[in-house]
Hints:
This protein is an alpha/beta fold. Helix content is 31%, strand content 19%. It has a single domain (2-115), classed as Hypothetical Protein Ychn, Chain: A.
Amino acid sequence: MIVIWSTQPAIGNITGRETLDAALAFAAYDQPVTLLFSQLAVRQLLPLPEANLAGAKNIANLLKALPMFDIEAVWVHDKSLQQCQLKTEQLIGEPTLVSDQQIRTLLQEANHVIRI
Length: 116
C-alpha cells in the first residue's frame, strides 16, 4: 500500500493537485493508495467555488471522482480538523476521521509513504 500524506495548504501552491496526480498515477498501475490529509492540508478538502481567485486550483471535482479510480481510502487527521475549526460535514466526499494512533498504524503498514 502507498500512503500519500499531504500536510500543506492548497492556497498559493499546487500541492493539492500534486497530491491527487500522484494518487491517480499509482492507482493507474493498480497500486492501492491511501490519501492522508493533516495539518493545514485538511483545508484542501473544502469546497472552493472561487478557488482560482484565491490562488488555488479547484480540485473538488477530482476529489469527488476518486472512487472511480479505486481510491476510496481518504483519511483526515482528527486533531488537524479541530485545529482548523472544521467539521467532517464541511469536507468534500466522505473522508474517514483518524487519530494519531491510527496514523502511526497506517504508516507502519505502508510499503511506501510519500509526504507532500
